[in-house]
Write a structure and sequence with these properties.
7-stranded antiparallel sheet, 5 helices
């Protein structure tokens, strides 16, 4: 079951690289240069501050409006974090998607999951930048920068700040 989920998640990630994008909101005027699917490069997430469940919880801290979702979508969507990093421009990001998960019976009689992506979010490995993919413009990969809610501190940074106090 986990293998099927991973295969489907990978498929969703590949498909959403070509998927529609959402309209930029007025309170988030900063846009990031566009990237094509050819510019996406997958890599390990070992260096990421937020990964897996932490990345999902990090994205859930944003309001529905900030995420470009309705209140209903934010509440009902499943959130999935990619197990590989994604390169956008010169930086690496953890990708988190918000999607409706539906179970469908295939021609072979087995149940399969289908994901209807509602939002895609990218957390830079250092946790200091968050991008929201424009989900309404299907022809271009555009991103809006979201204000970072909170940056996770490492043990070394905690010790350094304690020394200064």
């Amino acid at each position: 079951m986990k293998k099927l989920f991973i295969v489907l998640l990978s498929f969703v990630v590949v498909c959403t690289a070509f998927a529609a994008c959402s309209k930029q909101s007025k309170d988030q005027p900063t846009t990031i240069p566009t990237a094509t699917a050819a510019q996406f490069d997958k890599t390990t997430t070992d260096a990421a501050v937020y990964k897996d469940k932490e990345a999902i919880e990090f994205i859930k801290k944003y309001s529905a409006e900030e995420l470009g979702l309705t209140d209903k979508e934010k509440k009902e969507c499943s959130y999935l974090a990619d197990t590989s990093g994604v390169k956008i421009g010169d930086d690496y990001y953890i990708k988190v998607i918000a999607a409706y998960k539906k179970s469908e019976k295939g021609d072979d009689g087995k149940n399969y999951f289908k994901f209807d992506s509602r939002g895609e979010y990218f957390i830079r490995y250092d946790g200091k930048q968050v991008l929201k993919k424009d989900m309404k413009n299907k022809k271009e990969d555009k991103y809006t920068e979201l204000k970072v809610k909170k940056v996770k501190t490492t043990e070394a940074e905690k010790k350094e700040s304690e020394k200064k106090e």
